[in-house]
Amino acid sequence: MQSSLKNKHSISHAQDCSIPTHISRLLAASASERTLNILNLIPQLLCIKTKSQHYFCNTALNQYLGKNLNHSARQHIGYFIHPEDRENLTALWDEASILNQDFQKECRIKNLQQRYQWFRINVQFKPHPDLDWIATLDCIHNYVVERKLYKQQQINQKKFLDSSADCIKVFSPDGRITYINQFGRNVLLEPEQKLNNLFWLNLLDKTVQPQGVTALTKAQKGHQARFSSMTQRRDEPIYHWDNLLTPLLDEKGQVKHILCISRDTSQQILAEKRLEHAYTFDDLTQLYNRRAFHQLLEQSIVQAQADAISVGLVMLDLDCFKNLNDTLGHMAGDHLLKVFAYRLKKAFPEPMVVARFGSDEFAIIIPDLKSKQELIDYAQRAAEQLDTPIYYESQYINGGISIGCASYPENASSAAHLVRCADTALNDLKKTGGGGVLPFNHDMLQALERTAQKLNLARKILLHDSVVPYYQPKVNLKTGKIVGFEALLRWYDQGGGVQSPVDIEPAFEDFALATRMSEVMQRKVFSDIRYCLEHNIRLHPVAINAAPVEFLRDNYAESLLAHLDEYNIAPQFIEIEITEQSLEARGASYVLRALKKLKHAGIRIALDDFGTGHSSLTRLKDYPIDILKIDRSFIEKMHTDPSILAIVTAIGQLGPSMQIEILAEGIETAEHVASLEQRQCVTGQGFYFHKPMPIDEVVTLINSL
Question: Cα-atom radius of gyration of the chain, to the nearest Å?
Answer without folding.
Answer: 53
